[in-house]
Amino acid sequence: QVQVVESGGGLVQAGGSLRLSCAASGSIFSIIEMGWYRQAPGEQREMVATFTSGGRINYVDSVKGRFTGSRDFAKNTVYLQMNSLKPEDTAVYYCKADLVVAPFDPLTIYWGQGTQVTVSS
Asked: CA-CA distance, 36 to 43, in Å (whole number)?
């Protein structure tokens, strides 16, 4: 059983900061990639930041320079430090983990339940 759990969302004024955390736990053999995605009301889910197994972090253009990702490989945890938040950052933020639960098993994608981030103007 694998769990992906996010935390750290909340309500903040424009210009403020929040830090999101996401931990993958359970029967995990190898994590290939983790990522943060967000979905605003009436919008499609979009990638915010992805963390490759090689240590590279990719960001969507709209958050570059404002959001910083980090990863703790030992804890299967990724973080997203969000600074200079804007009202358009308001969304439910989801964590995704692409992983293998046992050797020779196929890649499986797990999603967290999401955490709400609301930025007031």
From this structure: 16
d(C-alpha 16, C-alpha 117), whole Å: 12
Contact in structure between 17 and 9 (CB atoms under 8 Å): no
Cα separation, 107 vs 118, whole angstroms: 33
| Mean pLDDT score across all residues of the chain | 96
Helix-, strand-, coil-residue percentages of the chain, each rounded to 5: 5, 60, 35
Q: Which of 28, 18, 2, 39 is nearest to 114 (CA)?
A: 39
Structure confidence at residue 97 as a pLDDT band (50, 70, 90): very high
Residue 53 has pLDDT above 90, yes or no: no
